[in-house]
Design a protein that fits this description.
Layout lengths: L4 E7 L4 H15 L27 H7 L13 E3 L6 E4 L2 H8 L6 H5 L13 E8 L2 E10 L3
Parallel strand pairs: 2-3, 3-4
Antiparallel strand pairs: 1-5, 4-5
Length: about 150
């Protein structure tokens, strides 16, 4: 069985790690992680299920979900320089140029196919600063579940 993709757009924050941690906390509080919500439909929106957390912390939820993980951004614990398990790494400028013809892709460009996921292994994630009118407006976090 292969991993399932997930992706989230969040408001731009210069501190990428803070944006990641706030997203993880938001999704934990909403209960949008396995096993609470075994199947999530992306993109997440106002109509997405929100049953609330069934664990006392993100760490407890992650431990309870082993070996498959939470199938959500909760599996991604930090920002890193290089791709690795439980890490969100920056998407390279070379890949952005190859996929979108720019290092400043818009949300529309990214949503048109989410080809960025082709470069992501199970249990890992990438992030991209998303632009609107040539200014950072959002951050995309995307990845694959462990299984």
């Amino acid at each position: 069985m292969g991993g399932d993709p997930y992706w989230y757009f969040v408001k731009y924050n210069k501190d990428i790690n803070q944006a990641l941690q706030e997203l993880r906390e938001r999704e934990f509080k909403a209960g949008r992680y396995s096993p609470v919500t075994p199947v999530l439909e992306f993109p997440i929106n106002d109509n997405s299920p929100s049953p609330g957390p069934q664990h006392s912390s993100i760490e407890e939820a992650f431990e309870a979900s082993e070996p498959d993980g939470t199938a959500s951004i909760l599996d991604i614990m930090k920002i890193g320089e290089e791709p690795d398990y439980c890490v969100a790494a920056r998407t390279s400028d070379e890949l952005l140029e190859e996929l979108y013809g720019t290092t400043k892709p818009t949300r529309e460009m990214i949503e048109d196919g989410l080809d960025i996921l082709d470069d992501v292994d199970r249990g890992q994630a990438r992030y991209v600063v998303v632009y609107k009118d040539e200014k950072p407006s959002e951050i995309l976090f995307c990845g694959y579940s462990f299984d």
